Amino acid sequence: MRIGYGWDSHEFKKGLPLKVGGVELEHTHGLAGHSDGDVLLHAITDALLGAIAAGDIGTFFPSEDARWKGADSVVFLRAAMEQVHRAGYMVANVDSTLILAEPKLSPHAKKIQARVAELLRIEPNCVGIKAKTPEGMGTDNAAIAHVTVLLLRRANKPRARMTAAAHAKRGARD
């Protein structure tokens, strides 16, 4: 079992599309970023990569690389999922908290939950989507996402275990 944590934030900017969890929402402002600014998918991507100790989103998709300018964040999430599968794990659960003043996410929560579940290849009841407002704490012009993921070892990928002899041999070298 592995647990990962991810966090992301982006500032709102007028005239951009607003994407949250791979779902485009109606709003006058979108989230500015090198890619499409989807804070939820970015935080999930970081949580997945962190759970397998593979770095972060910037390791694989640096903002200095023009290839990722305006990129759909689904690309990042799918790459992280591939890393998770190569490491022998699968996603069991994801829980998220989004902090933004507007738009209100509750009318869109089920759609976001379904899309994230589809992308992670898990059931919607394994995806928690919660939304909070910043309560005037100075972040009204941004969206923030906090995410935790739980990974389980895939049944067809047994865990490599070191034998006692291998441990002893390794200890003698150290």
Automatic annotation (TrEMBL):
Domain 2-C-methyl-D-erythritol 2,4-cyclodiphosphate synthase residue range list: 1-151
Keywords noted in UniProt: Isoprene biosynthesis, Lyase, Metal-binding
Cofactor(s), by name: a divalent metal cation
The keyword Lyase appears for this protein: yes
Domain of life from the UniProt record: Bacteria
Residue numbers marked as site, Transition state stabilizer: H34, T133
Catalysis: reaction(s): 4-CDP-2-C-methyl-D-erythritol 2-phosphate = 2-C-methyl-D-erythritol 2,4-cyclic diphosphate + CMP
Cofactor binding notes: Binds 1 divalent metal cation per subunit.
InterPro entries membership: MECDP_synthase, MECDP_synthase_CS, MECDP_synthase_sf
Protein's GO biological process: isopentenyl diphosphate biosynthetic process, methylerythritol 4-phosphate pathway; terpenoid biosynthetic process
Listed GO MF terms: 2-C-methyl-D-erythritol 2,4-cyclodiphosphate synthase activity; metal ion binding
EC category: lyase
Gene3D superfamilies referenced in this protein's UniProt entry, alphabetically: 2-C-methyl-D-erythritol 2,4-cyclodiphosphate synthase (3.30.1330.50)
EC number(s) from the headed UniProt entry: 4.6.1.12
Positions that bind a divalent metal cation: D8, H10, H42
Residues at which 4-CDP-2-C-methyl-D-erythritol 2-phosphate binds: D8, S9, H10, H34, S35, D56, I57, G58
Pathway: Isoprenoid biosynthesis; isopentenyl diphosphate biosynthesis via DXP pathway; isopentenyl diphosphate from 1-deoxy-D-xylulose 5-phosphate: step 4/6
Keyword Metal-binding: yes
Family: Belongs to the IspF family.
Self-association state and partner proteins as the record states: Homotrimer.
Protein name: 2-C-methyl-D-erythritol 2,4-cyclodiphosphate synthase
Species annotation: Candidatus Korobacter versatilis
Lineage: Bacteria, Pseudomonadati, Acidobacteriota, Terriglobia, Terriglobales
